[in-house]
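Final report, Chapter 2: Outcomes

The project's central promise was a pipeline that accepts a single protein chain and returns its three-dimensional structure in a standardized token representation, suitable for archiving and comparison. That pipeline is now operational. To close this chapter, we reproduce one record exactly as it appears in the project archive, with the input sequence first and the structure output second.
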Amino acid sequence: MQTALTVAAAYCLGSVSFAIVVSRLMRLPDPRSYGSGNPGATNVLRTGRKTAAALTLAGDAGKGWAAVWLAELFVPAAAPLAALAVFLGHLFPVFHRFKGGKGVATAAGVLFGLDWRVGLGTLATWLIIVAFFRYSSLAAMVSAAFAAFFTAFLLGFEASAAAVFVMSALLVWRHKENIVRLAAGTETRIGEKSEAS
């Protein structure tokens, strides 16, 4: 029962879209109505409001970290399931007709919650790819692959590694449109203005 409640709470927490919450509080357009239509920090940044984007990023990452931290505090055995549940909540939020974001920030929060070394290694990977190629989507997908490797290497091939592997696969799947644009050479680089993401 404790495990079920923990997973349900993590999913509900993940279902809170900070892109939508922050946009409403700051009287900005609904992030699903412009740009890529993705309720995430990158799309919110298209409004030109860096504060709103930063708050969205912090909120989405924070909920991922909080779900894992709280699970480890009260029901340690359920932490890997909570990690996956909060991520799924962000992708398929019950509060927003199951249409959510791509999960990059939430995944980052989850990784730091599981082990700061995994989170730091994944973040470093993202920064390196961005520095060389300036594609946020490419950095996210490469980092996702490395996240699974880092988790297995540092924590072993156990429940946490399985949860991160599933998250990584889903994150890449959510970027399928970006993959098409990358292959076609039409993907937007960081700093460029475009309607795509």
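Archive annotation: The chain has a mean pLDDT of 92.
This record, like all others produced under the grant, will remain available to the consortium after the project formally closes.
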